[in-house]
Write a structure and sequence with these properties.
- The complex is a heterodimer of chains A (136) and B (698).
- Chain A is an alpha/beta fold.
- Chain A has one domain: Rossmann fold (3-Layer(aba) Sandwich), CATH 3.40.50.2300.
- Chain A is 41% helix and 23% strand.
- Chain A is built from 5 helices and 7 strands; from the N terminus they run E-E-E-H-E-H-E-H-E-H-E-H.
- In chain A, strands 1, 2, 3, 4, 5, 6 and 7 form a 7-stranded mixed β-sheet that branches.
- By secondary structure, chain B is α+β, with helices and mostly antiparallel strands.
- Chain B folds into 5 domains: 143 residues, no CATH class; 100 residues, PAS domain (Beta-Lactamase), CATH 3.30.450; 71 residues; 131 residues, Heat Shock Protein 90 (2-Layer Sandwich), CATH 3.30.565; 208 residues, Ribonuclease H-like superfamily/Ribonuclease H (Nucleotidyltransferase, domain 5, 2-Layer Sandwich), CATH 3.30.420.
- In chain B, helix 2 crosses helix 20, helix 8 crosses helix 9 and helix 19 crosses helix 20.
- Chain B is elongated and about 165 Å long.
- The chains are: A alpha/beta (136), B alpha+beta (698).
- Chains A and B meet through helix 3 and helix 4 of A and helix 7, helix 10 and strand 11 of B.
């Protein structure tokens, strides 16, 4: 069951998910996967206003898709992962990098779950359900 | 009482007593014969008396000869050995004059000569010692300085023999066997490029040149800079040369890999890119084929993705190999960071760290200093701690402070700046990429804020011993006298001082090599140009692959636990064989030690057919076979002190044997045995002793 909140963030099984991705095709893929879970996500591109929008209504989970070295996305990850405002928000970081150091940095910046591209749909669903189960 | 009389009077009395004794014996014999013989046969009585007198006079003469031999001939021989040892071998121990006590004033006079000689020598030695000490201090300073030079340095004589090498050169030439003084450089590096460059420089006005040369095992390619060294550093007017070596194998390998990666990437992307373009064109032109084309596009896209994945993985795996890095102690890096921040900079505290980091230290120090300054400017903190912890196989560098986290925006902005003071226009971000790493803000478990920087390569180190270990770890070995030595492969006719020796000793499980006893420790030192080369010492436990009897452990103190995990004789023997190349072997009671190597020749894969000098035989030549020739006796005779803790250790006995042998050389020369052949011939003459020694070891 999905509900739409005031700022447009959708709730899935009672949870609100924000999807932040600068690559339209990949974004669509994640939307489809989230829809397959029975819910919907609010797709967002990273802009200066994005963080403010999230602060106004902190979601239960943020899915941040980091393609290559994306400094803006790293800043967003830190602002969510290391900020008290988002203490209850779970952060899923999806990267296209194979470097162990990138996984390590994401973890240090506060990622609760990490996945790699190309996306393993089953792994994504499992991880998302585990995180969202905490809010069920 | 006799010792109070003069020597001449004693000799006169000696012979007078002999004459008187002979007269008494003859008269007594005649009287005896006349009183016992028949009066009617005086001829028979005379004959009997004569025979008695002959026997008794002979006995008297033999007794006198024995006394003469014991107290005169042997005493003179002993005295002359003692004198030679003190004259030629510079032994300073007091002379034992007791055996020559019947030689009148000779022994005290010889003692006085030795004392005067010793006094004079003492004064000269004192003066020399002061100069030598200064030279040694300068040499040690030079050695310490040269041990810090990162490039491999090799100085060769005009005959292409090694005269000098440093620690990095040893590391660079490892695959070819260790460099050793007086060894041909062509044993280590390919002859062609060196000869060509050397001849070209000799024939031209140029003084230096660059060349590429591979090691003899072809394991490495080295970039070398050759510079001729003239003046005193050459044979006659022909100059020697210095080679400055740098390993470019990895550079070349990496360049090749990069080129290959680029080439393969371009080639592998061509086909799927062309296919995708064709499929998209067809999609436009033939919408009816959409279903089939979608499947084809998907296949080609998957292939393209796989190629990009593969290429990026290969690139990432080697990313930290492209950039030149150095090994630097973590504590030195922190010191450099403090220096960069200046005395008025923020407070930096750091615990002592025993890690060596593989990184571009210059760039990292500048990046970290800039970040700390940025943290201070933005009011985050004024005092910082720097921890470098083990993060196997690398290290984790953490800059911590009390306060808020640094914002990623600030961190990334700083990393986008060019590295300060760097002549290259590289940014901090690029430097981190070259290290295949990243830096990020993080809250530590104790609540402090931090910047965390992992480094992928680090080694554990030990504390630096400022007095010794720097030089010991990376020895600089040289003997500039070798520059003027004209090499001659043959040992025949060579002066003893010009030969290269390897003095060695073994400790074993027992005394019976044929009965299954084995070597448990092997030590060797090299003597080149008459001097022991400090940096060329072998001291190695050997796994005997059997237990060590308690009786043997009692002698040398080596237990089964001490040799557990040590290399076996095939490995140690092969290494020893390489050290012995072109050398004369020297050992005390050499047949015993050699029997173990001969027995294991097949396992070692090399035969020890070197000429061997035995200090037991040499002692017999110098002091006579009747003397004691144990190592302790020789050490005592030559004033060589073996520390008690080193006695019966392979290295302790090896060094003692080497010092004894060094003192023997001038004594041998004084006896006219100044060449290799002469000594060999003299040793053959003592073959009886040699046979006895061999018989003792079965």
């Amino acid at each position: 069951m999905s509900l739409k909140s005031e700022n447009g963030t959708r709730a899935t099984l009672g949870s609100k998910i924000a999807l932040i991705c600068d690559t339209p095709a990949v974004s669509r893929m994640f939307e489809a996967e989230i829809a397959a879970l029975g819910g919907g996500a609010r797709p967002m591109r990273y802009e200066p206003a994005t963080l403010e929008a999230l602060r106004a209504d902190p979601p239960d989970m943020v899915v941040a898709v980091v393609m290559g070295r994306n400094p803006a996305m790293q800043c967003l990850c830190q602002n969510i992962g290391q900020s008290d405002t988002f203490a209850r928000t779970r952060l899923m970081v999806v990267q296209d990098s194979n470097r162990a150091i990138d996984q390590r940095r994401a973890e240090a910046l506060g990622a609760d779950v990490q996945l790699k591209l190309p996306l393993d749909a089953a792994a994504f669903r499992k991880a998302a359900m585990e995180v969202l189960a905490e809010y069920a | 009482m006799l010792t109070r009389l003069s020597l001449r009077l004693r000799v006169f009395l000696f012979f007078a007593a002999l004459a008187l004794g002979a007269v008494v014996v003859i008269l007594g014999s005649l009287w005896f014969a006349a009183s016992r013989g028949a009066a009617d046969n005086p001829a028979s009585a005379l004959m009997t008396g004569g025979i008695m007198a002959a026997f008794l006079v002979t006995g008297l003469i033999i007794t006198v000869w024995w006394l003469f031999d014991e107290n005169v001939a042997k005493a003179i021989e002993r005295l002359s050995s003692e004198l030679r040892a003190r004259t030629h071998a510079t032994v300073n121990a007091q002379m034992d004059t007791n055996p020559a006590r019947y030689l009148g004033d000779l022994a005290p006079a010889a003692g006085a000569v030795v004392e005067t000689l010793s006094d004079a020598r003492g004064k000269i030695e004192l003066s020399i010692a002061e100069q030598t000490k200064r030279l040694e201090e300068q040499t040690a300073q030079l050695g310490a300085l040269l041990s810090d030079v990162q490039a491999g340095l090799v100085l060769c004589s005009a005959a292409h023999r090694l005269v000098f090498y440093n620690g990095p050169a040893v590391e660079l030439l490892q695959g070819t066997g260790r460099p050793r003084l007086d060894r041909s450089v062509f044993d280590l590096l390919r002859e062609g490029p060196i000869q060509r460059t050397y001849r070209r420089l000799l024939a031209s006005d140029e003084n230096d040149a660059e060349l590429l040369v591979s090691t003899t095992g072809c394991s490495r390619v080295l970039a070398a800079h050759m510079r001729l060294v003239s003046g005193a550093l050459g044979i006659g007017n022909v100059p020697g040369y210095v080679l400055t070596l740098r390993d470019v194998s990895s550079d070349l390998r990496l360049h090749t890999e990069r080129e290959r990666l680029l080439s393969e990437t371009v080639n592998s992307l061509r086909a799927p890119a062309a296919s995708l373009r064709a499929l998209l064109d067809m999609d436009e032109a033939h919408p009816e084929l959409e279903e089939r084309l979608t499947a084809d596009i998907r296949r080609e896209a998957m292939e393209l993705t796989a190629i990009v994945q593969s290429v990026s993985m290969r690139h990432d795996a080697r990313q930290d190999m492209w950039w030149p890095m150095q090994d630097v102690r973590a504590s030195h890096l922190i010191d450099a960071l403090r220096g960069q921040l200046g005395d008025d900079g923020p407070s930096i505290s750091a615990p002592t760290v025993f890690l060596q980091l593989h990184c571009d230290a210059f760039a990292l120090v500048n990046i970290l200093a800039a970040l700390i300054e940025r943290a201070v400017e933005s009011g985050l903190a004024k005092a910082f701690t720097i921890d470098v912890t083990d993060d196997s196989p690398g290290a984790l560098l953490t800059i911590g402070w009390q306060g808020g986290l640094m914002a990623m925006e600030m961190l990334l902005a700083e990393l986008d700046e060019p590295v300060r003071d760097s002549p290259l226009a590289v940014t901090g971000r690029e430097i981190l990429d070259f290290h295949n790493t990243d830096i990020w803000p993080q809250r530590l478990k104790d609540g402090r804020a931090a910047l965390v920087l992992p480094l992928h390569h680090a080694q554990r180190t030990t504390p630096i011993d400022l007095n010794a270990s720097k030089i010991a770890e990376r020895p600089t070995v040289f003997d500039f006298d070798l520059l003027n030595r004209v090499p001659d492969g043959s040992k025949s006719g060579k002066r003893l001082r010009d030969l290269t020796y390897v003095v060695f000793d073994t400790e074993t499980t027992g005394l019976d090599p044929k009965g299954g006893d084995e070597i448990v420790q092997l030590a060797a030192v090299r003597l080149v140009n008459g001097k022991r080369v400090d940096g060329e010492t072998l001291n190695q436990f050997v796994d005997p692959e059997r237990s060590i009897p308690a009786a043997s452990t009692k002698v040398h103190g080596i237990t089964d636990e001490m040799v557990a995990g040590a290399p076996t004789i095939d490995v140690v023997g092969a290494r020893f064989h390489r050290i012995c190349e072109h050398a004369v072997l020297v050992a005390h009671n050499a047949p015993f030690d050699m029997a173990f190597f001969h027995k294991q020749a097949d396992r070692i894969g090399a035969r020890f057919d070197h000429p061997v000098f035995d200090t037991v035989l040499l002692s017999a030549i110098l002091f006579g076979q009747g003397e004691t020739h144990t190592l302790d006796a020789l050490a005592d005779r030559f004033g060589v002190v073996i520390p008690e803790e080193d006695r019966h250790t392979a290295l302790g006995d090896t060094i003692a044997t080497a010092e004894v042998f060094q003192r023997m050389i001038p004594m041998l020369e004084a006896r006219g045995l100044d060449t290799f052949d002469a000594v060999l011939e003299a040793m053959q003459k003592n073959s009886r002793l040699l046979r006895e020694m061999k018989a003792r070891i079965g």
